[in-house]
Each structure stands twice: as structure tokens, then as C-alpha cells.
Specification:
elongated, single chain, about 25% helix, seven-stranded antiparallel β-sheet, 8 helices, alpha+beta
């Protein structure tokens, strides 16, 4: 099934020009690596949607691997019940790793020591849940409702502060722009089933040094043509819109738009970068910041795609 982690994002910390991931349980910053992102996205789901108490979750718990006498392994996350007995054992993999029977055996081997009631396997794109039988030593696949009840499917509408902490909105953006972003962010990032997709794209920086590696919402414009968009905070606290046009599997155009400049001075000029060089393109009418219009926001990729074709 589609992962619950897809619409959750880890805290970001800016340090020495680098974006690090903040673990709220360990109170520590980590490098922005695929498996770490999945672990922290899953933790966000457990804390915010399931509302599992933070005091009853452990992260990277060392466990003696009974199949290897001298080695220990680390359980990514363990959710404990009110008696502090392991209830859910979580194993997180990078999105590029397909969830297989071999990985299911791996998490089951951890559980021989822990004796958790449920196993939760995720790569941030897909989730699989198992119920364990301690007396028989086997596991069976179950639906998430069996593990969480009806919780887990009720996503709350997140406030603007959530998106500031996660690197989508600059904390120094104007109150005028933030007033628009408080409605735009939940509308942009909350997806219904089969509605586009969200992926972390690790693609470095633009030629002028702006970071491109971030979570993107990906829109299909036509056969073999997609546009990925994200809102991202700069190290100086401004908010940018970043877009990537992909044609036939190749990223052909990068778009960078300073939303603070656009909102405050009505300068709707975006920088574009492509293999033939860089330039600018006028984007007047892309957004009306005086009022929030969800249709205007979600038709933005199609409208912008047409502008790129006409340039």
C-alpha cells in the first residue's frame, strides 16, 4: 500500500551552507541521506497522525542479532505500549530499495529478541504491516487499521510553522506572502489517492548556487513530459519556487522564482537554466497573492509549461 510517510517531511537545520535532518527524539542533526529521510518521515507520521507519545518511541535501538553471535543491529524505530513493551517494530529502507521477502525476514529476525506485536516495513513509498504470533513464531500481513485503528488515515491540516521548520517556507518572508502560503502549503502537499506524486529529488544546485535537492510534487503534463515543483527556503530566510521540466527522462529546464520579490514588488521574473545557457522569463499572472485560489495553484504547472513552450 502507499506509504503513510509520503506526505510527511523531516525537520531541516541549516548549518554551514548545508541542509541537515533534525531528529526530534535524539535531539541531533544528521546528514540528508535517503534512509534517514524515510526514518524521520515515518517518525513524523507516528507522532502527528497516530499521535504516539514521543516518550514511548525509541530510535536506532541496538539489538543483538541472534543469527550473528558477535554482532548487533539497530531497529530504526520501536513504538512501546503503556507498559513499555515493544508494540510496533519499524524497519526503514531507502526509496530505491524494493520491499522483498528477504527484508521481511530481516525485520522478523530483529523481533525474535524484541517480541513486538506488529512489524512495520517501509521505504517511504510503500508500507507493509505484519502481525506476529509469539507462540508459533510466524507473521501474517495485516492492514494498517489492525495496527493503528482508524487513526493513521486522518491527516491534519498543518500550520505554516510546520512548513517553515521543514524548509519549504522562509522564516523571513513577508507577512503578506506568509498569509498566502499558510493556505497554499497544505493544498499543495496534501494529495488524495492517485493524484500526482511526491518524491525527494537529489539533484544538487542551480548554476547560481541555489539548492535543488528537496521534496517535489511531480505533475504529468503530457506523454514523456513532467514538471516537478517545490517551495524552498533559502539560507537567508526567503521563499523560492523551484521547478524542473523533464522531457523524455531528461531534465531540460530549471526554473527559479523569488516569491518574496514577486509578492512585495510584483516582479514576476523567473531565472531559467538549461544546457544552452541561462536567461529570464516573465511570469505575470502566475499567482495572485491577495487571495488564495487552489485551482490557480494546482494549474500552475500546466500554465507554466505553456509559457516555456512559447518562449
Amino acid at each position: 500500500m502507499q506509504s503513510f510517510a509520503l506526505q510527511h517531511f523531516p525537520h531541516i537545520r541549516h548549518r554551514n551552507g548545508e541542509r541537515l535532518l533534525w531528529n526530534p527524539l535524539l535531539k541531533k542533526a544528521f546528514k540528508n541521506l535517503p534512509e534517514e529521510r524515510v526514518r524521520l518521515q515515518t517518525l513524523e507520521f507516528l507522532l502527528h497522525d497516530v499521535q504516539w507519545p514521543a516518550t514511548q518511541i525509541s530510535c536506532e535501538t541496538a539489538i543483538r542479532d541472534i543469527t550473528k553471535e558477535t554482532n548487533t543491529v539497530r531497529a530504526d524505530l520501536i513504538c512501546y505500549d503503556s507498559d513499555f513493551k515493544p508494540h510496533i517494530v519499524v524497519e526503514c529502507k531507502a526509496p530505491s530499495i524494493r520491499l522483498t521477502e528477504k527484508i521481511a525476514y530481516q525485520i522478523a529476525s530483529y523481533n525474535r529478541k524484541l517480541k513486538g506485536d506488529y512489524l512495520y516495513l517501509t521505504n517511504g513509498i510503500r508500507d507493509i504491516f505484519f502481525e506476529t504470533n509469539a507462540s508459533k513464531g510466524n507473521v501474517v500481513v495485516v492492514q494498517p487499521e489492525r495496527v493503528f485503528g482508524d487513526t493513521g488515515r486522518n491527516m491534519d491540516v498543518k500550520p505554516l510553522s510546520y512548513f517553515i521548520k521543514r524548509g519549504f517556507v522562509g522564516n523571513h518572508s513577508s507577512s503578506y506572502l506568509k498569509n498566502w502560503l499558510k493556505d497554499a502549503m497544505p493544498a499543495f502537499w496534501m494529495l488524495s489517492n492517485n493524484e500526482s506524486e511526491i518524491r525527494f529529488l537529489d539533484i544538487g544546485k542551480t548554476p547560481d548556487g541555489a539548492s535543488l535537492s528537496h521534496y517535489y510534487r511531480i505533475f504529468t503534463l503530457a506523454a514523456e513530459k513532467k514538471m516537478a515543483f517545490t517551495f524552498v527556503s533559502s539560507h537567508f530566510g526567503q521563499t523560492y519556487l523551484m521547478g524542473i521540466l523533464n522531457e523524455d527522462g531528461v531534465n531540460t529546464v530549471i526554473i527559479e522564482l523569488d516569491l518574496d520579490l514577486m509578492a512585495e514588488k510584483n516582479e514576476a521574473i523567473a531565472h531559467i537554466f538549461q544546457s544552452t545557457g541561462s536567461g529570464k522569463i516573465g511570469l505575470s499572472g502566475l499567482f495572485d497573492f491577495s487571495t488564495f485560489d487552489k485551482e490557480q495553484l494546482l494549474t500552475m504547472p500546466e500554465r507554466l509549461g505553456k509559457k516555456l513552450q512559447r518562449r
